[in-house]
Write a structure and sequence with these properties.
The complex is a heterotrimer of chains A (277), B (302) and C (445).
Chain A lengths: L1 H33 L4 H7 L11 H8 L2 H32 L5 H11 L5 H14 L6 H24 L4 H8 L4 H12 L1 H17 L2 H6 L23 H22 L7 H7 L1
Helix pairs in contact in A: 1-12, 3-12, 4-7, 4-10, 5-7, 7-10, 10-12
Chain B lengths: L1 H44 L2 E2 L8 E2 L3 H8 L1 H35 L4 H12 L2 H11 L6 H8 L14 H26 L3 H9 L4 H29 L3 H6 L11 H11 L3 H33 L1
Antiparallel strand pairs in B: 1-2
Helix pairs in contact in B: 1-12, 2-12, 3-7, 3-9, 4-7, 7-9, 8-9, 9-12, 11-12
Chain C lengths: L1 H32 L11 E6 L4 H17 L5 E6 L2 H13 L6 E4 L2 H9 L7 H5 L3 H4 L2 H6 L1 E2 L2 E2 L1 E5 L2 E8 H6 L8 H13 L3 E3 L7 H15 L2 H8 L7 H15 L16 H7 L3 E7 L2 H8 L1 H4 L2 E4 L14 E4 L3 E5 L3 H12 L4 H9 L9 H4 L3 H12 L3 E2 L2 H4 L2 H16 L4 H20 L1
Parallel strand pairs in C: 1-2, 1-3, 8-9, 11-13
Antiparallel strand pairs in C: 3-12, 4-5, 6-12, 7-9, 7-10, 7-11
Helix pairs in contact in C: 10-12, 10-21, 12-21, 12-22, 21-22
The chains are: A mainly alpha (277), B mainly alpha (302), C alpha/beta (445).
Keywords (chain B): Cell membrane, Membrane, Transmembrane, Transmembrane helix, Transport
Subcellular location (chain B): Cell membrane
Family (chain B): Belongs to the binding-protein-dependent transport system permease family.
Chain lengths: 277, 302, 445
């Protein structure tokens, strides 16, 4: 009886899962399909038609431009920013989730409050600072704001994640004579991997698609990142949509690949494994 | 003996403070430079009448703030933000949790779904804005076609002030649900396999395991997710600006789009800063109070 | 397990360290090169911000700058910094609010340009201008648009953009329709299309300025230009009957189905208006003259089907119906530098109106605001647009460009609501007038 019920609900879940897959995927599919259309074809046949032919000129045009330069810039910015961000937010979340000290709560509250900062108010001050520091119009100008604006949300997520990690493991390590710093690097960091992976995924996507700082802080085309690559196909009165879709498709693919690798860290049983190890 | 013990705890306390200081220093520096400074700058600017570019600003005290308090457009925007907030929490988190649960129960073979379901979060707002503006078009859009199948007429979702906000909320939910899915997936990893196995050995069905064992254990993570969703929707900007620009009328105006227009389009940087400051205060208050309430409940339960 | 973690941490640290070092080194390196890391250029460099990101526009800017470099006697070089149109204004505001400003930058004249001038980011060039060939080359109307308080602050250089009605000649023929010469005839033509299941006007009104064209044209045909001028200087009001008339007509036309369903959610930038034209589900489109270039780029064959006529006048009205709405120069170059540098930057700006450049721009489907450009034009539609422009007694600049930005926004919002049918013409006029009054009282303070 129970089994039948379970089977039925499992099938319902599958159906819903497949429906959701369609909903999630359709826009992506049409983005890719439209990148294979000619401009006039898109405007006459509409967005939801199947391309008449496998028209590759859009991709040829995109790839023969500055695309790889932008791509390379984006990769560097992403890699450096994400590394710094993960390390320092893990550092900050550890004491906030584990230590008993007076200021822990106020500091945490301040960080939560800082999550509510609207991005646009930082543009002008950050522009000024980048000028003064002499990093304006270089990709290095992006790293500071990318890391800093992601800190509050990252610390918030990671702190709440670390709070849920069972204390028993640490207590065992403490008995073994493990100090605070050792504890952080040897026990907490590995245990927090799923949380870190979540952060890496979320912030990685945001940084990869980030737009406002990218155009505020760079100006020569050699220093632009991928989200600005669509500019070459957007004019004053219209955009060349199929080209833009081609750029955006090429922009998404690296992230999908990255996600396939990163989601591996989100496998169940990390905690259990760590106890045994 | 007693004295020694006391100094030992004092030393431990000192050590703790020291370690906390070392661990918190890097983020403190970055936050002071890139977050605190802009916030202070914003509050400072809000005291001036300033077009945003001129060298001369006129100090007008709290006039901008008085204007803000009486500005019906701002409070309409705040009300819209609250609607976005409530619906985002109610839509994104349950679906995200359901997806994560499905994947968790399914095991390794679900990787394909993980990737498929994650894709909306990856797409840029340019692509989303473009595709949805066609999909939502009254004539020839997908939703009109669906309504046609059921014998209904064409529907104008984005152009109608009554439905525009809800339509945008739907698109936002479509984009951000995958984030809560990933978030809940990570939360599941904290439940040890033993808990699951023990429950199953006790003869619990998967459904019972979810409702009676997993859900209570996941509750803290879900609370955090709710706060994230809350803050995120109260300061939301991207897709609304791309898709409707706040219109028609003020039906989809949010605090962030209103602030942006004042600061960068209408050359009212002083007032725009007051809007930004008001936003900051409102969001912080709402999120801190909610956190208090949620954590208070936790203590009672414990 | 432990080893793995250690090596992971080591890796992290090494990356961070190397990143920090690279940052340090690169910023050192950059200060030596000193290419474009300043908004304003170094001693011999003129930084020129523009919106030439897309192929056609980019080629025009590049060519003019190249011509300048070839012919100039000064030691100044010009560096072009293209920024995409939608983000350009914001980038400019951010730079200016930090007291930075490029040496040369494009703008759209009107309200925002006046703000730049008032804030000291645009230098008067009257003397340079009058001593150059530009007064002979450029159309006077365009120079008037670049003038603020009796000084010239910008060089008009690109795009005569006037609103008028593009229509599908085949569809007119199919239903035996003539080009309308009065608003009443236009309505009859539209009614015929509605009866045959065709949308008369392809309008995508999500960006709001597209629908504003109907409002401006209707108001100008009803009341001429005086009511607008009077409302702006405070002696009149936007509650004048001509603005009420415009609002009422829009409401009436919306009611009668002249505009596509869901008009306020259609996006102009994404091509949803042109799509209706191309799919022949709509017959006409009141829009700026840049459509000639756009349609040609999209499909030269379809362009054959297209005709153009100016917005018709009211029957029996003595209001001058030759008045055009639009701009004689869409893009202007302003300058924020002094003495020799200003002279050099100005020299670069003059290149845009040299014969070679004019030919090049005309070939690219642009209409530079120079005298005699109609002789160079080969395209019949562009020619007829220029003829109407030359016959026009005067030109009214787009409201949203002319008005102070806050007032412009109020107009755009209320005009969009008219198309949605969610406010009355009187309410729209009141909102418009209220914003204007607020601006006037604030500027008096």
């Amino acid at each position: 009886m129970n089994k039948v019920k379970s089977k039925v609900s499992w099938s319902v879940a599958w159906i819903l899962g497949i429906i959701w897959s369609i909903v999630a995927l359709l826009p992506f599919v049409f983005m890719v399909l439209n990148s294979f259309k000619e401009k006039f074809e898109l405007l006459t046949e509409g967005v939801f038609s199947i391309p008449k032919s496998f028209y590759l000129d859009n991709y040829k045009a995109v790839l023969s431009g500055n695309f790889f330069r932008f791509f390379f810039n984006s990769v560097i910015v992403l890699f450096v920013s994400l590394t710094i961000l993960l390390l320092i937010s893990a550092c900050a979340s550890y004491p906030l989730s584990r230590f008993q000290f007076k200021l822990a709560k106020p500091i945490y509250a301040i960080i939560v409050a800082c999550m509510s900062i609207p991005i646009h108010i930082t543009l002008i001050p950050v522009f000024k600072m980048s000028k003064n520091m002499g990093v304006y119009d270089s990709i290095w100008a992006l790293i500071g704001p990318y890391v800093a604006t992601a800190i509050p949300i990252s610390v918030f997520i990671l702190t709440s994640f670390m709070k849920e990690i069972p204390v028993e493991i640490e207590e065992a390590a403490q008995i073994d004579g493990c100090g605070r710093y050792q504890m952080f690097f040897r026990i907490m960091l590995p245990l927090a991997k799923p949380g870190l992976a979540t952060l890496a995924i979320y912030n990685g996507v945001n940084m990869w698609n980030e737009f406002s700082f990218a155009y505020t802080l760079t100006q020569s085309s050699a220093n632009r990142t991928l989200p600005l690559a669509v500019w070459e196909f957007q004019g004053q009165y219209s955009m060349n949509t199929p080209m833009v879709m081609a750029v955006l498709t090429l922009t998404v693919i690296p992230m999908i690949i990255l996600f396939i690798f990163a989601q591996d860290k989100l496998v169940k049983g990390m905690t259990a494994g760590a106890v045994k190890g | 003996m007693g004295k020694k013990e006391l100094s030992l705890t004092a030393k431990r306390k000192k050590d703790t403070r020291m370690a906390a200081f070392v661990f918190l220093l890097p983020i403190a520096i970055l936050m002071i430079v890139y977050i605190f400074y802009p916030i202070i700058d914003t509050f400072h600017t809000s005291l001036y009448k300033w077009n945003g570019i001129s060298a001369d600003k006129t100090m007008i005290g709290l006039k901008n703030w008085v204007k803000l308090a009486q500005d019906t457009s701002f409070w309409t925007a705040f009300k819209n933000n609250l609607i976005v907030m409530v619906l985002s929490i109610c839509i994104q988190i349950p679906i995200g949790l359901a997806l994560a649960t499905f994947i968790d129960f399914g095991g390794k073979k679900m990787t394909v779904f993980k990737v498929l379901w994650f894709i909306p979060l990856l797409m840029s707002s340019v692509a989303i804005g473009f595709l949805f503006s066609y999909a939502l078009a009254t004539n020839g859009g997908i939703f009109s076609a669906i309504s046609g199948l059921f014998g209904g007429g064409n529907i104008d979702l984005l152009g109608n002030p009554k439905t525009a906000l809800f339509t945008v909320i739907g698109v936002i939910a479509w984009q951000f649900t995958p984030f809560y899915m990933v978030y809940c997936m990570a939360a599941y990893t904290n439940l040890s396999t033993e808990v699951y196995e023990a429950a199953i050995i006790d003869g619990a069905s998967k459904g019972q395991y979810f409702w009676q064992v997993a859900l209570p254990l996941l509750a803290p993570s879900i609370k955090s997710a709710a706060i994230l969703s809350m803050v995120g929707s109260l300061k939301y900007f991207d897709l609304v600006y791309v898709m409707t620009g706040g219109g028609p009328g003020t039906s989809t105006e949010l605090m962030a789009t209103y602030m942006y227009k004042q600061s960068f389009v209408k050359f009212n940087m002083g007032y725009g800063s007051a809007v930004a400051g008001g936003m900051f205060i409102l969001i912080s208050l709402v999120s801190l109070i909610t956190m208090r309430i949620l954590n208070g409940k936790k203590k009672e339960a414990a | 397990m432990k080893k793995k973690t250690k090596s992971l941490i080591a890796l992290l640290l090494v990356t961070v360290m190397s990143a920090v070092m690279v940052v340090g080194c690169s910023s050192n390196g950059e200060s030596k090169e000193e290419t474009t890391d300043k908004t304003a250029g170094g001693d011999n460099e003129i930084v020129f911000w523009n919106i030439g990101t897309e192929e056609v526009d980019k080629a025009i800017y590049d060519k003019a700058i190249e011509m300048y470099h070839e012919s100039t006697d000064t030691e100044y070089t010009v560096t072009s910094v293209p920024v995409q149109n939608d983000t350009y204004k914001e980038k400019l505001v951010i730079a200016m609010s930090s007291g930075e400003c490029p040496d040369m930058y494009i703008n759209w004249s009107g309200g925002p340009m006046n703000e730049y001038i008032e804030s000291g980011f645009a230098q008067p060039i009257t003397e340079l201008f009058n001593n150059s060939e530009l007064p002979d080359r450029l159309l006077e109307a365009s120079v008037a648009q670049a003038t603020y308080k009796e000084d010239i602050y910008a060089v008009p250089f690109m795009n005569v953009s006037l609103s008028g009605i593009f229509y599908n000649k085949d569809m007119f023929k199919q239903y035996n329709l003539e080009v309308p010469t009065t608003i009443e005839e236009l309505e009859k033509v539209s009614d015929t299309f509605v009866e045959n299941g065709i949308t008369p006007f392809a309008l995508a009104n999500a960006p709001k300025w597209t629908g504003s064209m109907y409002f401006m044209n209707l108001a100008a045909r009803k009341g001429g230009l005086e009511p607008f001028a009077a409302a702006v200087d405070g002696s009149g009001s936007f509650e004048d009957e001509c603005f009420i008339y415009a609002g009422d007509k829009i409401l009436e036309w919306t009611e009668k189905g002249y505009f596509p369903e869901g008009v306020n959610s259609l996006s102009e930038d994404d091509g949803q208006a042109r799509q209706m034209l191309y799919q022949e589900t709509a017959a006409m489109d009141l829009i700026g003259s840049w459509y000639t270039g756009l349609i040609q780029q999209d499909s030269p064959e379809f362009y054959e089907k297209i005709g153009w006529f100016p917005f018709p006048g009211l029957e029996g009205s003595d209001v001058d119906s030759s008045i055009m709405i639009g701009t004689i120069g869409d893009n202007f170059i302003s300058f924020n530098c002094e003495d020799d540098k200003l002279a050099a930057a100005f020299e670069c700006a003059t290149k845009f109106s040299e014969d070679e450049m004019v030919d090049f721009m005309v070939e690219s489907g642009k209409v530079p605001p120079v005298k005699g450009v109609e002789d160079k034009l080969t395209d019949p539609i562009t020619k007829s647009i220029m003829e109407s422009a030359n016959n026009a007694s005067s030109t009214q600049l787009w409201y949203d460009q002319y008005l102070p930005p806050a007032v412009a926004q109020a107009h755009l919002d209320s005009s969009q609501e008219l198309f949605g049918g969610t406010i009355t013409s009187k309410e729209a006029a009141e909102q418009f007038q209220k914003a204007m009054e607020e601006y006037l009282s604030e500027s008096k303070e």
